[in-house]
């Protein structure tokens, strides 16, 4: 088959004066023997706002044409090669996509292309450069004689005519044959083992490079260029990459989906992150062209621990194997990445199912989905107390660290709930990150859905209702005649962000080179970690780099250890009121803003009349203006209960004064006392019994 080689070069400085995302086009070049033109398009600032790469594209005026393209940037190590297939006229292919900061403006970009007519498998050997014009072999179908080799004399049977450009001028008798056959010159289609029971298999690889700027927006999608492969029918595939998840509930994950243009096809992929041990294998059968499958999902924390977030950029490689099923109904080898619980699908209920699914085998489109549990009338009639039915464990969509399992007691979970249906949901996590679940239970009887609804919200563990619905009320609704009742459950999981969103990877590799001294105990620490989370510690180590021991007088050594573990987010820590108070004092003293905000939110959520005075002392001792304002608002709402408490007079006079000032700033206080009355308060000291106006 004829091969034609051509080269195009342009100076990158020519694109320097072009406005943002404007296209620079090289002059058209004619491919000898193919009757087609080709040219390059350069986008120095990317094609759109989502695409900021230095991108070079190739266009061909006529198709089908395949080309093996090699490019390099002079004076740099930027180079690469790819196979492009142009199915139709003016089709486009991606030659290179580079980081614009690594492309010097003084260099030249060179692209060498080897063209072949038709869409065929092209293999390029390094260093194998054929001449620009070769002999052209035009074959006609023949069943008896094989075509002669290139350059051999033509057969008298007429099965093949071989002519070089020079011989075609010296042999006029052969010209009509060449001209006649050139009009009908069509390459035979590629052969595939259609009669074989094994599917046609093609393996291809693509990679995506992510940098810091890609992790700014949630639900921002980056699509890789389409890659064309030859199956039984030519098809394309690409990756949709979400660096911060495809919705706000999974903003702490890197999600990748593989997309295909033609179906049906079975795909087995292996994702790998360069220079790390992170690998993910997934399988999926595509039956729709718009389906999302072969999911890659890893949390940002895993990338941090792998040491790639501290780099300017890192790459994720996807090696995909495509297989055409021998039959659309043939079973796929291995688990499929399909939606596990589609809406309004009833689960087989009655038997215990403990089947496990790995995160990579699940693709769920929405964080909100419905699970229906049908219970037959016979089960309700014969149900006994404590008899439990369990569903299998389901994994929340997008949050691979969280799962839940439903428990149903048709006859009640205990004696007090006899003749009632009890329902519970148990939530589990394999991550140390907290999460909040908002669930809703409902009933569906005789086509009437959501007769009863009970929303609830909690952090961990177990939630449900011991008396969800009475048998008497269910029978009144016609359950006996209908043959059963369906209990529905929907849930939304909201994973909380890691406490420290980003830590440089070199922190985990540094030794414990410092210590916090509390009394006679030393708590080993990493000075880089302390310098990263606290400007006070950072300035301290800058001023005295050789003195890495810091003495703390007002803190407990065990609490310091717990606080440091909590900051590093390496293991789950149960936060209590005393621990949160120490967190707030520690964070306020050393200006650890993230820890201070967490402790403030925790203490404000626990604010009550019983602990008001303790939290007020902490708010002014830390100090914390946010907690002070919260105490003032709380005082305004529960004035009579707090003032009449015996501990009220034990508060410091300055604290009391500030508390009432905070309370007066509340709009409700201003409405109640807007008549111009001046309020005076006296604090009675038990030891002196003197009245002191405040």
Automatic annotation (TrEMBL):
BTB domain mapped to chain residues: 512-571
Q: Which InterPro entries match?
A: BPM1-6, BTB/POZ_dom, MATH/TRAF_dom, SKP1/BTB/POZ_sf
In terms of SUPFAM superfamilies, this protein maps to: POZ domain, TRAF domain-like
Q: Where are stretches of biased composition, namely Low complexity?
A: 151-166
Cite the residue spans of the region called Disordered.
138-200
- Gene Ontology biological process terms in this record: protein ubiquitination
Q: Which PANTHER family match?
A: BTB/POZ AND MATH DOMAIN-CONTAINING PROTEIN 1, OS07G0655300 PROTEIN
Which protein, by its recorded name, is this? BTB domain-containing protein
Q: Which organism is it from?
A: Panagrellus redivivus
């Amino acid at each position: 088959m004829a091969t034609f080689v051509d080269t195009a070069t342009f100076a990158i400085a020519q694109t320097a004066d072009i406005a943002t995302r404007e296209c620079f086009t090289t002059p058209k070049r004619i491919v000898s023997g193919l009757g087609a033109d080709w040219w390059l398009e350069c986008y120095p600032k990317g094609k759109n706002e989502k695409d900021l790469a230095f991108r070079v594209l190739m266009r061909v005026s006529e198709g089908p044409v395949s080309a093996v393209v090699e490019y390099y940037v002079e004076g740099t190590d930027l180079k690469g090669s790819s196979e492009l297939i142009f199915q139709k006229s003016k089709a486009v292919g991606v030659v290179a996509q580079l980081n614009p900061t690594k492309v010097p403006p003084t260099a030249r970009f060179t692209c060498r292309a080897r063209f072949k007519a038709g869409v065929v498998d092209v293999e390029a050997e390094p260093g194998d450069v054929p001449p620009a014009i070769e002999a052209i072999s035009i074959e006609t179908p023949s069943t008896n004689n094989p075509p002669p080799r290139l350059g051999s004399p033509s057969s008298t049977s007429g099965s093949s005519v071989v002519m070089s450009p020079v011989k075609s001028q010296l042999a006029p008798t052969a010209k009509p044959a060449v001209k006649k056959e050139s009009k009908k010159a069509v390459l035979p289609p590629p052969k595939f083992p259609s009669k074989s029971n094994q599917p046609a298999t093609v393996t291809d690889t693509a990679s995506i490079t992510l940098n810091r700027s890609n992790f700014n927006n949630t639900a921002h999608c980056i699509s890789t260029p389409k890659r064309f492969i030859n199956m039984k029918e030519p098809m394309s595939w690409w990756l949709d990459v979400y660096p911060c998840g495809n919705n706000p509930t999974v903003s702490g994950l890197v999600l990748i989906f593989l997309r295909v243009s033609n179906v049906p096809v079975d795909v087995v992929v292996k994702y790998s992150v360069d220079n790390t041990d992170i690998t993910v294998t997934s399988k999926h059968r595509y039956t729709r062209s718009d389906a999302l499958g072969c999911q890659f999902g890893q949390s940002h924390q895993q990338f941090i621990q792998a040491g790639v977030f501290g780099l300017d950029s890192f790459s994720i490689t996807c090696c995909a194997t495509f297989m055409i099923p021998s039959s659309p109904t043939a079973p796929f080898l291995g688990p499929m990445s399909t939606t596990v619980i589609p809406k309004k699908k009833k689960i087989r209920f009655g038997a215990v199912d403990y089947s496990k699914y790995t995160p990579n085998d699940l693709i769920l489109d929405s964080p909100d989905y419905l699970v229906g549990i049908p219970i037959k009338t016979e089960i309700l009639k014969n149900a006994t107390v404590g008899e439990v039915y369990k569903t299998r464990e389901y994994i929340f969509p997008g949050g691979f660290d969280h799962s839940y399992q439903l428990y149903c007691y048709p006859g009640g979970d205990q004696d007090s709930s006899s003749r009632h249906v009890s329902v519970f949901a148990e939530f589990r996590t394999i991550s140390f990150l907290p999460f909040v679940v908002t669930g809703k239970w409902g009933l569906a009887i005789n086509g009437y859905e959501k007769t009863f609804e009970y929303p609830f919200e909690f952090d961990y563990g177990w939630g449900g209702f011991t008396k969800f619905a009475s048998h008497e009320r269910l029978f009144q609704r016609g359950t006996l005649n209908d043959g059963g009742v369906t209990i529905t459950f929907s849930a939304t999981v909201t994973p909380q962000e890691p406490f420290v969103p980003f830590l440089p990877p070199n922190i985990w590799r540094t030794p414990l080179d410092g210590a916090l001294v509390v009394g006679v105990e030393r708590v080993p620490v990493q000075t880089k970690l302390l310098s990263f989370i606290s400007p006070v510690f950072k300035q301290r180590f800058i001023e005295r780099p050789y003195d890495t021991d810091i003495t703390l007088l007002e803190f407990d050594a065990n609490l310091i250890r717990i606080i440091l573990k909590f900051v590093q987010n390496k293991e789950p820590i149960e936060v209590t009121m005393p621990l949160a108070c120490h967190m707030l004092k520690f964070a306020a003293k050393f200006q650890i803003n993230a820890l201070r905000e967490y402790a403030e939110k925790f203490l404000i959520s626990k604010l009550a009349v019983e602990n008001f005075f303790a939290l007020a002392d902490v708010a002014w001792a830390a100090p914390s203006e946010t907690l002070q304002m919260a105490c003032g608002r709380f005082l305004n709402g529960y004035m009579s209960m707090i003032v009449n408490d015996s501990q009220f007079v034990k508060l410091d006079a300055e604290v009391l004064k500030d508390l009432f000032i905070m309370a007066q700033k509340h709009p409700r206080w201003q409405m109640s006392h807007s008549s111009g009355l001046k309020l005076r308060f006296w604090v009675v000291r038990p030891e002196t019994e003197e009245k002191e106006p405040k």
